[in-house]
Amino acid sequence: MRRAVAAWLAWDAGAGAFNTIVSTFVIATYYVRAVAPDPTAGATAWAWMQALAGLVIALLAVPFGALADRGRRRLLLGAGSAVAGAATLALWWVRPSPGSSPLALGLAGTATVAFELAFVAYNAMLPSLAPPERRGRLSMLGWGMGYVGGLLSMGLCLVLFLFPHPPLWGLDAAAAEPVRACAVLAGAWFLLLSWPAAVWGPESAGGRLPLGEAWRDALRRGHLRLYLLARILTIDGLTTLFAFGGIYAAAAIGLGQQGVLLFGIALNVSAGLGALAASTVEDRIGAQATAIIATLALAVFGAAILVVRNHAAFWALGLALGLFVGPAQAASRSLMAAMAPPEKRAAWFGLFSLSGRVTGFAGPAALGAVTAATGSLRLGMATIVVFLLLGAALLAALRLPAPDGGAPRGA
Fold it and tell me: Quick check: 139 and 331 in contact, CB under 8 A?
Protein backbone atom coordinates (compact mmCIF):
# COMPACT_ATOMS: atom_id res chain seq x y z
CA MET A 1 0.00 0.00 0.00
CA ARG A 2 2.89 2.39 0.68
CA ARG A 3 4.08 1.95 -2.89
CA ALA A 4 0.59 2.75 -4.18
CA VAL A 5 0.38 5.88 -2.02
CA ALA A 6 3.82 7.05 -3.17
CA ALA A 7 2.84 6.46 -6.80
CA TRP A 8 -0.40 8.40 -6.31
CA LEU A 9 1.43 11.36 -4.75
CA ALA A 10 4.02 11.29 -7.53
CA TRP A 11 1.27 11.74 -10.14
CA ASP A 12 0.16 14.97 -8.47
CA ALA A 13 3.76 16.21 -8.34
CA GLY A 14 4.03 15.52 -12.07
CA ALA A 15 0.72 17.21 -12.79
CA GLY A 16 2.01 20.37 -11.11
CA ALA A 17 4.44 20.91 -13.99
CA PHE A 18 1.61 20.81 -16.53
CA ASN A 19 -0.58 23.21 -14.55
CA THR A 20 2.23 25.67 -13.82
CA ILE A 21 4.18 25.68 -17.08
CA VAL A 22 1.55 24.97 -19.72
CA SER A 23 -1.65 26.41 -18.27
CA THR A 24 -0.42 29.37 -16.25
CA PHE A 25 3.01 30.94 -16.46
CA VAL A 26 4.93 29.97 -19.60
CA ILE A 27 3.17 28.41 -22.59
CA ALA A 28 -0.11 30.31 -22.32
CA THR A 29 1.79 33.59 -22.06
CA TYR A 30 4.15 32.59 -24.89
CA TYR A 31 1.21 31.87 -27.16
CA VAL A 32 -0.52 35.19 -26.47
CA ARG A 33 2.62 37.31 -26.78
CA ALA A 34 4.68 35.57 -29.47
CA VAL A 35 2.62 33.10 -31.50
CA ALA A 36 -0.71 34.82 -32.04
CA PRO A 37 -0.96 37.79 -34.45
CA ASP A 38 -1.52 40.16 -31.52
CA PRO A 39 -2.19 39.81 -27.78
CA THR A 40 -5.91 40.50 -28.06
CA ALA A 41 -6.40 37.89 -30.78
CA GLY A 42 -4.19 35.49 -28.85
CA ALA A 43 -6.13 35.86 -25.60
CA THR A 44 -9.39 35.38 -27.47
CA ALA A 45 -8.19 32.27 -29.31
CA TRP A 46 -6.74 30.75 -26.12
CA ALA A 47 -10.02 31.37 -24.32
CA TRP A 48 -11.99 29.68 -27.10
CA MET A 49 -9.61 26.73 -27.03
CA GLN A 50 -10.13 26.36 -23.29
CA ALA A 51 -13.89 26.63 -23.74
CA LEU A 52 -13.88 23.90 -26.41
CA ALA A 53 -11.68 21.70 -24.24
CA GLY A 54 -14.10 22.25 -21.37
CA LEU A 55 -17.02 21.19 -23.55
CA VAL A 56 -15.25 17.98 -24.57
CA ILE A 57 -14.39 17.26 -20.93
CA ALA A 58 -17.99 17.93 -19.92
CA LEU A 59 -19.21 15.40 -22.48
CA LEU A 60 -16.64 12.71 -21.69
CA ALA A 61 -15.89 12.97 -17.96
CA VAL A 62 -18.80 10.95 -16.60
CA PRO A 63 -18.76 8.18 -19.27
CA PHE A 64 -14.98 8.01 -18.86
CA GLY A 65 -15.41 7.63 -15.12
CA ALA A 66 -18.05 4.94 -15.54
CA LEU A 67 -15.66 3.05 -17.81
CA ALA A 68 -12.91 3.40 -15.21
CA ASP A 69 -15.26 1.86 -12.63
CA ARG A 70 -15.38 -1.28 -14.76
CA GLY A 71 -11.84 -2.16 -13.70
CA ARG A 72 -9.79 0.08 -15.98
CA ARG A 73 -8.63 2.94 -13.74
CA ARG A 74 -4.92 2.25 -14.20
CA LEU A 75 -5.25 1.84 -17.95
CA LEU A 76 -7.29 5.00 -18.42
CA LEU A 77 -5.10 7.04 -16.08
CA GLY A 78 -2.03 5.84 -17.94
CA ALA A 79 -3.51 6.51 -21.37
CA GLY A 80 -4.69 10.00 -20.45
CA SER A 81 -1.36 10.86 -18.84
CA ALA A 82 0.60 9.56 -21.84
CA VAL A 83 -1.44 11.61 -24.32
CA ALA A 84 -1.19 14.74 -22.16
CA GLY A 85 2.56 14.30 -21.72
CA ALA A 86 3.17 13.61 -25.41
CA ALA A 87 1.11 16.62 -26.51
CA THR A 88 3.04 18.80 -24.06
CA LEU A 89 6.37 17.56 -25.42
CA ALA A 90 5.17 18.34 -28.95
CA LEU A 91 4.68 22.00 -28.04
CA TRP A 92 8.42 22.29 -28.77
CA TRP A 93 7.48 22.60 -32.46
CA VAL A 94 5.32 25.68 -31.85
CA ARG A 95 7.39 28.50 -33.31
CA PRO A 96 6.90 32.23 -32.59
CA SER A 97 4.82 32.76 -35.72
CA PRO A 98 1.07 33.03 -36.43
CA GLY A 99 1.49 30.03 -38.70
CA SER A 100 2.06 27.89 -35.58
CA SER A 101 -1.17 29.03 -33.94
CA PRO A 102 -3.34 26.05 -35.02
CA LEU A 103 -0.64 23.63 -33.84
CA ALA A 104 -0.33 25.38 -30.49
CA LEU A 105 -4.07 25.44 -29.87
CA GLY A 106 -4.54 21.85 -31.01
CA LEU A 107 -1.75 20.48 -28.84
CA ALA A 108 -2.68 22.54 -25.76
CA GLY A 109 -6.35 21.60 -26.13
CA THR A 110 -5.53 17.90 -26.56
CA ALA A 111 -3.23 17.96 -23.55
CA THR A 112 -5.86 19.70 -21.43
CA VAL A 113 -8.61 17.20 -22.28
CA ALA A 114 -6.36 14.16 -21.73
CA PHE A 115 -5.04 15.58 -18.47
CA GLU A 116 -8.51 16.25 -17.05
CA LEU A 117 -9.79 12.80 -18.02
CA ALA A 118 -6.78 11.14 -16.41
CA PHE A 119 -7.53 13.26 -13.33
CA VAL A 120 -10.95 11.58 -13.09
CA ALA A 121 -9.36 8.13 -12.69
CA TYR A 122 -6.69 9.57 -10.41
CA ASN A 123 -9.21 11.13 -8.01
CA ALA A 124 -11.24 7.91 -7.93
CA MET A 125 -8.21 6.09 -6.47
CA LEU A 126 -8.17 8.21 -3.30
CA PRO A 127 -10.72 6.25 -1.21
CA SER A 128 -8.84 3.00 -1.85
CA LEU A 129 -5.56 4.41 -0.54
CA ALA A 130 -6.55 5.48 2.97
CA PRO A 131 -9.31 4.83 5.52
CA PRO A 132 -11.79 7.65 6.12
CA GLU A 133 -9.96 8.94 9.19
CA ARG A 134 -6.76 9.53 7.14
CA ARG A 135 -8.25 10.35 3.75
CA GLY A 136 -8.26 14.09 4.26
CA ARG A 137 -4.58 14.11 5.16
CA LEU A 138 -3.70 12.18 2.02
CA SER A 139 -5.83 14.43 -0.18
CA MET A 140 -4.14 17.53 1.25
CA LEU A 141 -0.71 15.97 0.80
CA GLY A 142 -1.53 15.19 -2.81
CA TRP A 143 -2.58 18.76 -3.47
CA GLY A 144 0.54 20.00 -1.70
CA MET A 145 2.73 17.73 -3.82
CA GLY A 146 1.14 19.28 -6.89
CA TYR A 147 2.25 22.74 -5.80
CA VAL A 148 5.72 21.45 -4.91
CA GLY A 149 6.07 19.77 -8.30
CA GLY A 150 4.92 22.89 -10.09
CA LEU A 151 7.35 25.10 -8.22
CA LEU A 152 10.31 22.78 -8.72
CA SER A 153 9.67 22.41 -12.43
CA MET A 154 9.13 26.15 -12.82
CA GLY A 155 12.34 26.82 -10.91
CA LEU A 156 14.23 24.54 -13.28
CA CYS A 157 12.73 26.37 -16.26
CA LEU A 158 13.86 29.70 -14.86
CA VAL A 159 17.38 28.53 -14.01
CA LEU A 160 18.03 26.39 -17.07
CA PHE A 161 16.17 28.19 -19.83
CA LEU A 162 14.66 31.59 -19.07
CA PHE A 163 17.27 33.43 -16.97
CA PRO A 164 20.61 32.61 -18.69
CA HIS A 165 21.80 35.18 -21.28
CA PRO A 166 22.96 33.98 -23.69
CA PRO A 167 20.84 30.81 -23.46
CA LEU A 168 22.51 27.56 -22.46
CA TRP A 169 23.17 24.65 -24.83
CA GLY A 170 23.01 26.82 -27.92
CA LEU A 171 19.26 27.45 -27.70
CA ASP A 172 18.16 30.14 -30.13
CA ALA A 173 16.45 32.99 -28.29
CA ALA A 174 15.21 34.52 -31.53
CA ALA A 175 13.27 31.31 -32.23
CA ALA A 176 11.99 31.25 -28.63
CA GLU A 177 13.74 27.93 -28.05
CA PRO A 178 14.35 28.60 -24.32
CA VAL A 179 10.59 29.04 -23.82
CA ARG A 180 9.77 26.04 -26.01
CA ALA A 181 12.26 23.97 -24.00
CA CYS A 182 10.08 24.58 -20.94
CA ALA A 183 7.32 22.58 -22.64
CA VAL A 184 9.77 19.71 -23.16
CA LEU A 185 10.72 19.82 -19.48
CA ALA A 186 7.05 19.90 -18.42
CA GLY A 187 6.12 16.98 -20.67
CA ALA A 188 9.08 14.87 -19.56
CA TRP A 189 8.45 15.73 -15.90
CA PHE A 190 4.82 14.68 -16.12
CA LEU A 191 5.54 11.45 -18.02
CA LEU A 192 8.28 10.50 -15.55
CA LEU A 193 6.13 10.99 -12.46
CA SER A 194 2.78 9.80 -13.81
CA TRP A 195 3.59 6.25 -14.87
CA PRO A 196 3.98 4.76 -11.34
CA ALA A 197 0.30 5.44 -10.58
CA ALA A 198 -0.68 3.70 -13.82
CA VAL A 199 1.29 0.63 -12.69
CA TRP A 200 0.78 0.53 -8.91
CA GLY A 201 -2.31 2.65 -8.29
CA PRO A 202 -5.33 0.85 -6.78
CA GLU A 203 -7.68 -0.67 -9.33
CA SER A 204 -11.45 -0.61 -9.14
CA ALA A 205 -13.58 -3.61 -8.25
CA GLY A 206 -14.70 -3.97 -11.85
CA GLY A 207 -18.41 -3.19 -11.53
CA ARG A 208 -20.73 -2.97 -14.53
CA LEU A 209 -22.46 0.37 -14.12
CA PRO A 210 -23.98 1.34 -17.49
CA LEU A 211 -22.66 4.65 -18.80
CA GLY A 212 -26.05 6.39 -18.89
CA GLU A 213 -26.87 5.13 -15.41
CA ALA A 214 -23.85 7.04 -14.07
CA TRP A 215 -25.73 10.28 -14.70
CA ARG A 216 -29.15 9.14 -13.50
CA ASP A 217 -27.87 7.42 -10.36
CA ALA A 218 -25.85 10.40 -9.21
CA LEU A 219 -28.34 13.13 -10.04
CA ARG A 220 -31.21 11.36 -8.23
CA ARG A 221 -29.48 12.17 -4.94
CA GLY A 222 -30.36 15.57 -3.52
CA HIS A 223 -27.22 15.91 -1.40
CA LEU A 224 -25.04 15.31 -4.45
CA ARG A 225 -26.91 17.89 -6.52
CA LEU A 226 -26.44 20.46 -3.76
CA TYR A 227 -22.76 19.58 -3.41
CA LEU A 228 -22.15 19.90 -7.16
CA LEU A 229 -23.86 23.29 -7.24
CA ALA A 230 -21.69 24.45 -4.34
CA ARG A 231 -18.61 23.21 -6.15
CA ILE A 232 -19.64 24.95 -9.39
CA LEU A 233 -19.90 28.30 -7.60
CA THR A 234 -16.66 27.83 -5.67
CA ILE A 235 -14.65 26.68 -8.70
CA ASP A 236 -16.08 29.49 -10.85
CA GLY A 237 -14.81 31.93 -8.24
CA LEU A 238 -11.38 30.32 -7.97
CA THR A 239 -10.99 29.97 -11.73
CA THR A 240 -11.79 33.64 -12.24
CA LEU A 241 -9.38 34.57 -9.45
CA PHE A 242 -6.57 32.62 -11.11
CA ALA A 243 -7.37 34.00 -14.57
CA PHE A 244 -7.61 37.66 -13.55
CA GLY A 245 -5.41 37.85 -10.46
CA GLY A 246 -2.33 38.82 -12.48
CA ILE A 247 -4.29 41.35 -14.51
CA TYR A 248 -5.62 42.92 -11.32
CA ALA A 249 -2.16 43.00 -9.74
CA ALA A 250 -0.78 44.86 -12.75
CA ALA A 251 -3.71 47.16 -13.51
CA ALA A 252 -5.02 48.07 -10.05
CA ILE A 253 -1.99 47.57 -7.79
CA GLY A 254 0.70 48.56 -10.29
CA LEU A 255 2.97 45.51 -10.14
CA GLY A 256 5.32 45.21 -13.10
CA GLN A 257 5.74 42.08 -15.19
CA GLN A 258 8.50 40.71 -12.99
CA GLY A 259 6.50 41.55 -9.89
CA VAL A 260 3.47 39.70 -11.20
CA LEU A 261 5.59 36.63 -11.96
CA LEU A 262 7.20 36.68 -8.53
CA PHE A 263 3.82 37.15 -6.87
CA GLY A 264 2.45 34.17 -8.80
CA ILE A 265 5.33 31.98 -7.66
CA ALA A 266 4.95 33.16 -4.07
CA LEU A 267 1.22 32.47 -4.22
CA ASN A 268 1.93 28.89 -5.31
CA VAL A 269 4.36 28.49 -2.40
CA SER A 270 1.71 29.79 -0.02
CA ALA A 271 -0.93 27.48 -1.47
CA GLY A 272 1.36 24.46 -1.17
CA LEU A 273 2.25 25.26 2.42
CA GLY A 274 -1.41 25.74 3.23
CA ALA A 275 -2.32 22.34 1.82
CA LEU A 276 0.49 20.62 3.69
CA ALA A 277 -0.26 22.41 6.95
CA ALA A 278 -3.95 21.53 6.72
CA SER A 279 -3.27 17.86 6.01
CA THR A 280 -4.08 16.86 9.60
CA VAL A 281 -6.80 19.43 10.27
CA GLU A 282 -9.32 17.92 7.87
CA ASP A 283 -9.14 14.51 9.50
CA ARG A 284 -10.02 16.13 12.83
CA ILE A 285 -12.90 18.39 11.83
CA GLY A 286 -14.09 16.71 8.63
CA ALA A 287 -13.94 17.52 4.92
CA GLN A 288 -17.18 19.51 4.92
CA ALA A 289 -16.14 21.82 7.76
CA THR A 290 -12.69 22.28 6.23
CA ALA A 291 -14.18 23.19 2.85
CA ILE A 292 -16.56 25.72 4.44
CA ILE A 293 -13.84 27.39 6.53
CA ALA A 294 -11.37 27.54 3.63
CA THR A 295 -13.95 28.95 1.21
CA LEU A 296 -15.07 31.60 3.69
CA ALA A 297 -11.44 32.55 4.32
CA LEU A 298 -10.89 32.95 0.58
CA ALA A 299 -13.89 35.27 0.40
CA VAL A 300 -12.75 37.36 3.39
CA PHE A 301 -9.16 37.79 2.23
CA GLY A 302 -10.34 38.32 -1.34
CA ALA A 303 -12.60 41.16 -0.22
CA ALA A 304 -9.77 42.69 1.82
CA ILE A 305 -7.44 42.64 -1.19
CA LEU A 306 -9.95 44.70 -3.15
CA VAL A 307 -9.77 47.47 -0.54
CA VAL A 308 -5.97 47.87 -0.17
CA ARG A 309 -3.91 49.91 -2.61
CA ASN A 310 -0.26 49.54 -1.56
CA HIS A 311 2.09 46.74 -2.56
CA ALA A 312 2.96 45.52 0.94
CA ALA A 313 -0.65 45.02 2.00
CA PHE A 314 -1.49 43.38 -1.32
CA TRP A 315 1.37 40.90 -0.92
CA ALA A 316 0.48 40.13 2.71
CA LEU A 317 -3.21 39.54 2.01
CA GLY A 318 -2.48 37.65 -1.21
CA LEU A 319 -0.16 35.20 0.55
CA ALA A 320 -2.71 34.78 3.35
CA LEU A 321 -5.37 34.01 0.74
CA GLY A 322 -3.07 31.48 -0.88
CA LEU A 323 -2.92 29.45 2.33
CA PHE A 324 -6.57 28.47 1.87
CA VAL A 325 -6.57 27.64 -1.86
CA GLY A 326 -5.15 24.14 -1.42
CA PRO A 327 -7.35 23.22 1.57
CA ALA A 328 -10.50 24.36 -0.25
CA GLN A 329 -9.72 22.21 -3.29
CA ALA A 330 -8.42 19.18 -1.41
CA ALA A 331 -11.32 19.13 1.07
CA SER A 332 -13.74 19.29 -1.85
CA ARG A 333 -12.12 16.18 -3.30
CA SER A 334 -12.25 14.39 0.06
CA LEU A 335 -15.92 15.26 0.43
CA MET A 336 -16.72 13.68 -2.93
CA ALA A 337 -14.69 10.61 -1.96
CA ALA A 338 -16.77 10.28 1.21
CA MET A 339 -20.06 10.47 -0.69
CA ALA A 340 -19.29 8.21 -3.66
CA PRO A 341 -20.31 4.53 -3.47
CA PRO A 342 -17.23 2.29 -3.89
CA GLU A 343 -18.40 0.76 -7.17
CA LYS A 344 -19.23 4.16 -8.71
CA ARG A 345 -16.38 6.36 -7.54
CA ALA A 346 -14.85 7.13 -10.93
CA ALA A 347 -18.24 7.90 -12.44
CA TRP A 348 -19.02 10.27 -9.59
CA PHE A 349 -15.60 11.87 -9.95
CA GLY A 350 -16.55 12.37 -13.58
CA LEU A 351 -19.36 14.57 -12.28
CA PHE A 352 -16.79 16.17 -9.96
CA SER A 353 -14.66 17.12 -12.97
CA LEU A 354 -17.72 18.16 -14.96
CA SER A 355 -18.83 20.51 -12.17
CA GLY A 356 -15.46 22.23 -12.35
CA ARG A 357 -15.87 22.91 -16.08
CA VAL A 358 -19.52 23.14 -17.00
CA THR A 359 -20.01 26.83 -16.10
CA GLY A 360 -16.40 27.98 -16.36
CA PHE A 361 -17.55 30.95 -18.41
CA ALA A 362 -19.85 32.32 -15.68
CA GLY A 363 -17.21 33.86 -13.43
CA PRO A 364 -15.32 35.73 -16.18
CA ALA A 365 -18.63 36.80 -17.75
CA ALA A 366 -19.89 38.26 -14.45
CA LEU A 367 -16.57 40.01 -13.86
CA GLY A 368 -16.55 41.45 -17.37
CA ALA A 369 -20.16 42.60 -17.20
CA VAL A 370 -19.73 44.43 -13.87
CA THR A 371 -16.42 45.95 -14.96
CA ALA A 372 -17.95 47.19 -18.21
CA ALA A 373 -21.02 48.59 -16.43
CA THR A 374 -19.11 50.36 -13.65
CA GLY A 375 -15.76 51.06 -15.25
CA SER A 376 -14.10 49.58 -12.15
CA LEU A 377 -11.99 46.43 -12.19
CA ARG A 378 -12.17 46.37 -8.40
CA LEU A 379 -15.97 46.10 -8.50
CA GLY A 380 -15.69 43.49 -11.24
CA MET A 381 -13.34 41.43 -9.07
CA ALA A 382 -15.88 41.66 -6.25
CA THR A 383 -18.05 39.19 -8.14
CA ILE A 384 -15.48 36.54 -7.18
CA VAL A 385 -16.27 37.16 -3.52
CA VAL A 386 -19.98 36.70 -4.23
CA PHE A 387 -19.35 33.34 -5.93
CA LEU A 388 -17.25 32.14 -2.99
CA LEU A 389 -19.80 33.23 -0.39
CA LEU A 390 -22.62 31.48 -2.23
CA GLY A 391 -20.52 28.33 -2.49
CA ALA A 392 -19.76 28.38 1.23
CA ALA A 393 -23.45 28.88 2.05
CA LEU A 394 -24.47 25.85 0.00
CA LEU A 395 -21.73 23.76 1.58
CA ALA A 396 -23.05 24.75 5.01
CA ALA A 397 -26.58 23.70 3.96
CA LEU A 398 -25.37 20.28 2.77
CA ARG A 399 -26.59 17.30 4.80
CA LEU A 400 -24.73 14.10 4.06
CA PRO A 401 -26.35 10.66 4.45
CA ALA A 402 -25.08 8.83 7.51
CA PRO A 403 -22.74 5.92 6.70
CA ASP A 404 -25.21 3.47 8.24
CA GLY A 405 -28.21 4.95 6.43
CA GLY A 406 -29.36 6.81 9.53
CA ALA A 407 -30.24 10.45 9.90
CA PRO A 408 -28.48 12.96 7.65
CA ARG A 409 -25.45 14.71 9.06
CA GLY A 410 -24.12 18.15 8.28
CA ALA A 411 -20.97 20.01 9.06
Answer: yes
